[in-house]
Structures are given as C-alpha cells and as structure tokens.
Amino acid sequence: MDFCSYFSFTAEPFSKEVEDGELWLPPSKQMLLEMLIEAVHARKSVLLAGDPGVGKTCLLRALRHALSPQTFRLTYCANVTLGRRDFYRQLCLALGLARCSTAGDVFYAVSTHVEELAKERVFPVFVLDEAHLLHQDTLDHLHILLNYAWDSRALLSLVLLGLPELGERLRVRRNRSLYSRLHYRLTIDPLTPDDTADYLRVRLGRVGCTKELFTSDAIAMLHEAAAGSLRDTDRLATAALRASARKKRKLVERDVLSRVLQLDAEEAG
C-alpha cells in the first residue's frame, strides 16, 4: 500500500501539479504579489531576488494568474545563459516572431513588436528566470529594450528573477543603466515556522486530509531542516509521510522525521 492510500489522500499532497489559481502564498508573499501586480500595471520593471526554493517561480505563476491576457502578454524565458544574439533570438521565438540573422535585426523585430502591441493596448511583460546567469553582453543591452520614444514611454515591464547575487551584479557601475530602470527591487524571504505549518495544513487539506498529520515538534524539525525552502519542504514532507506509512503510524512524529533527515543527509554527503 502506498502512502497516499494509507492516509486516504485523493492525490499526492506535495506534487508540483497545482493550478495557478490554487497556489498557496503566505501573507509576506501575498504582499510581494501585490507589488508585482502594481509594478506591471504601472509599466515598471522589477528585480526579484531570493535563495533557491523559496517560491520565486510560485510567485510568478500567481502573477500570471492575476494578469488579464487581454491586457498583458507575459513571456517567460528560462534559458538566459545564451549570448546576446541567441538570447534575443530566443525572445523572438517566445513572442512568435520569425528568426532573424543578425543581432540588430533581432532587436529591431522585438522592439517593433512591442510598439505594435502598445497600439493594440496590449503590454508585454518579459520574465527572465535565473537572471543571475545572464551573460554580461546581454546585461549591457537589456536596458535598451526599455527605451521607447527617446526614453519617454514605458511600453513593457522587465522582471529579472534570480539568486541574491543578481542584485550584487546589477549594482556594479557597468550595469547601472539597467539597475536604475528597475524601480521595484524586491526580496523574497524563506518561510517562517508559522508559514511552514500553514503550508503543510493547506496542501494536506487539498487532498482530503481533515486533521493534523505532523506533530508540532516534527513541523519545527522539518522547518529547520528545509531552511524555509518550499522545494525542500515538499521533498522532506513526502519522505516523512512515506516512512510513517511504512511504520503504520497515523501521525508524522519526531522520531520518524529524524530518521528521514538522517538518511537525507547521508545521501547528500
């Protein structure tokens, strides 16, 4: 019997397969979402930095759900490790534009497309994930994408998403033209202990669990081990549920979680 059957879950509680509209956000991240929405509506650009697994992509998915597709065209780029020309070619493909042969042609095609969308009162939002990995030659030219009509019109929002070192890169003198155009500079923090407890409760509730399965000391231990990371919380909570089911336990208790964490550390080591 698998752990879902044992606990009478209707599905795996910590699966990635969650609809955008059902994403869980604690109050702190709900505030960040509201600031992102505000920035996009104002045609402003954003720097959003945070450690791995703290929910940056989750926040983006919530933003996508909140934006009207009739008004905003959100384009997501994950492969940012390309050179400048190939980066803009990728952006062309994401926008449904034809391939261009030179960097100048690519940039012209993207810029023209943005201006055409503005005439239709549709505003692009370019999201660059893992932006701390951007090549310097791409960073050197990104700010030009934000200049229209002699830098007097805001036709798109650029959202740069990355690890904390992204902010450090952008603050150096060479990148100040781009950094000065990022009017919203946001940091996404790890989960708090209360966030972790609420997250477990919400995710378990969505698969039919109506009672507390994790004891309070197990939640505290899980939170400390995951260091506030949603990704690690999902992984360790799933492992703890499996271990508890194997032992025919009705609760995830401290001793079971302790063994799970020990095995996890051994595998990582």
Instruction: Give the helices and strands as they follow along the chain.
Output: HHEHEHHEHEHHEHHHH
Give the end-to-end Cα distance, rounded to a whole number of Å.
Answer: 30 Å
Number of strands: 5
Indicate the proportion of strand residues.
5-15%
**CATH architecture label name of the largest domain:** 3-Layer(aba) Sandwich
The CATH C-level class name of the largest domain: Alpha Beta
Helix percentage range: 40-55%
Count, helices: 12
Domains, number:
2
Q: What is the averaged pLDDT score? A: 88
Task: Please specify the SSE layout and strand pairing.
Blueprint: H1 3-6, H2 27-41, E1 46-49, H3 56-66, E2 72-77, H4 84-95, H5 103-119, E3 123-128, H6 136-142, E4 157-162, H7 165-170, H8 176-179, E5 184-187, H9 193-205, H10 216-226, H11 230-246, H12 254-268
Parallel strand pairs: 1-4, 1-5, 2-3, 3-4
Can you put this structure into words, describing what you see?
- The protein has 269 residues and is of the alpha/beta class.
- It folds into 2 domains: 27-187, P-loop containing nucleotide triphosphate hydrolases (Rossmann fold, 3-Layer(aba) Sandwich); 191-268, Helicase, Ruva Protein, domain 3.
- Helix content is 49%, strand content 10%.
- The protein has helices at 3-6, 27-41, 56-66, 84-95, 103-119, 136-142, 165-170, 176-179, 193-205, 216-226, 230-246, 254-268, and strands at 46-49, 72-77, 123-128, 157-162, 184-187.
- Strands 2-3-4-1-5 form a 5-stranded parallel sheet, with helices on both faces.
- Helix 2 packs across helix 3.
- It is elongated and about 65 Å long.
- 30% of the residues are buried.
